[in-house]
Design goal:
With 121 residues, the protein is an all-alpha fold. It has one domain. The protein is 74% helix and 0% strand. Helix 3 crosses helix 4 and helix 5 packs parallel to helix 8.
């Protein structure tokens, strides 16, 4: 169903990625489910689903680094670390091809995010 919506309205791709990121930030109960969804999306035959997985993970890193008052132990930071670590084991090719985006995690004041990058690599 998501494939059909995104195929017909590609502008919804960014909105869908934003909604996934908000779910990651707000609720730890969605971490595993979203990680599994991103894995299935990336492994899909549909290019739009692969793009959704890539865009979501890249935007996740960009937005967590842009937060001005990042609390190093916040729920958003912990959930981001978990999603990145879970996805890195399942879809390693995505992380290697986009490593330049993830390297920026080393500049984060949050230990959990720097540690996530170490686990990814």
């Amino acid at each position: 169903m998501i494939e059909e919506v995104l195929t017909k309205q590609s502008t919804d791709l960014r909105n869908t990625a934003f909604k996934l990121i908000n779910l990651i930030y707000e609720d730890e109960n969605f971490v595993v489910s979203i990680s599994n969804f991103l894995e299935r999306s990336y492994n899909s035959d549909k290019a739009i689903m692969k793009k959704l997985a890539v865009d979501t993970l890249v935007m996740l890193v960009d937005y967590i680094l842009m937060k001005t008052n990042i609390n190093t132990e916040s729920q958003a930071v912990r959930n981001t670390k978990e999603v990145l670590c879970l996805c890195s084991f399942k879809i390693t090719k995505l992380f290697y091809t986009n490593l330049s985006n993830f390297i920026n995690l080393y500049e984060s004041p949050a230990y959990l995010l720097r540690n996530a990058l170490t686990e990814i690599i």
